[in-house]
Amino acid sequence: MKFELKNLGIGPVNPGVSTGIAWLETHGDETISYSPVDATAIAKVKNATLDDYEHLMFKAQEAYLKWRIVPAPKRGEVVRQIGEALRKKKEELGYLVSLEMGKIYEEGLGEVQEMIDICDFSVGQSRLLNGATMHSERPFHRMYDQYHPLGIVGIITSYNFPVAVWGWNSMLAAIAGDVIIWKPSSKTPLCAIAVQKIIAETLRRNNVPEGVFNLIITKSSVLGDNFAADKRIPLISVTGSTKVGKKIAGIVGNRLGKTILELGGNNAVIISQHANLDMTLQSVVFGSVGTCGQRCTSTRRLIVHESVFETVKERLVAAYQSISDRIGNPLDKDTLIGPLMDGTAVKNFLHAIEEVRKEGGTVVFGGTTLRGEKYHSDNYVMPAIVEAENHYKTVQEETFAPIVYLIKYSTIEEAISLNNNVPQGLSSCIFTEDLIEAEKFLSETGSDCGIANVNLGTSGAEIGGAFGGEKDTGGGRESGSDAWKAYMRRQTNTLNFSGQTALAQGITFDF
Ligand code: UN1
Description:
With 511 residues, this protein is α/β, with parallel strands linked by helices.
């Protein structure tokens, strides 16, 4: 494949608002998208203004009235075709994800695959928007639940998964009968434009009303708090940091709107003395350094049994050593670790290393920036392994970079308590071949996270499960299982076919 931006419909300067097929002449300032790979400018985006937002909102409101009456399986058919369109562009979109965000090409492809998978999932789900039927306590009455569309769904996505998060949210929202306003990270606007261009032909072919799939690119200073406060949007889904999520949740909560929050993680792997260490190490390395530590599911803490602690440490250092020459251009096929997103991410990485040292942590590997011919920007770093204690402030925080903290434990109860003793609660796992330990970890007294695995890592969840976590992770669930329900409103219906009035709870009220 020869990659060219124009094959994805991206020009040198691109408007930042689309209502599906149409693109608006936007009037805001310009954002230049720089590649973290080599710091070159890829292309520009002309940002939206509030007037542009109002235009888009008008189209979205109009479109909703039409889209909500399209039968759900027919909406599913459109989603099926979107999946087909993504299949055709998988390589090119995966390449752009890698170029604009910095994850390796293989992971860029994986991300597009997640979008395709959620399309397939949503097609089936479009025929399964089922409610329960209940038995009424009154004779000749029928009770049941129905799920109806909600309306406009605001989807705020982060730079680290610049296309898939839109997929998980918008494909479910679309089959639910909602319309979508996507506000992507200003760090990865071109990926969003490319997605919108890829789906346009499908929308045209199926006469999808203009305004069902909207995209708006602008700075949060233009559209941020006011987006959250907009009463025309019943549901806002946020994937990003806990700080941003709390702020938005506060504003949306204040107007009693709904949110789906998928925020920070501080994910631990428990390595038991009963673990298969070869398999464990393989998973731990991918979880810790994959995507250069920029997944919300990245492995941040290794809670290791004291009897295997030194062995794990030595083997992990050796594994990091062996891949240290595989850091570089994420588009080269031998590369395993690309750059961090930008200067801010590098600064946060270095700051965490400095702070954890001050707190008493020992850096046993890496923790530095990389300079030299091989590294075409200042964003390349050597992943770090740090011996630390769970209560350190640095360890309690999520640093979105490849730093893994080694923590020792002696009993399984202690390991579980260390796992849970952080503000966040996204992903967790235990490596063990001892059934009792595994079951304890999964029990109500075990991991308090939204995701808890046995003998597989913290990252790389499949789309079929509900994705999200507890505590500072926000409690929301996106993607599979019954996450679709969050995109719909539930209505309880009771029908009386008795020909008589009958009050519930046996109350008589005769007159
Ligand atoms: C994220 O980093 O925001 O489980 C999402 C995973 C991916 C999703 C990560 N399926 O690692």
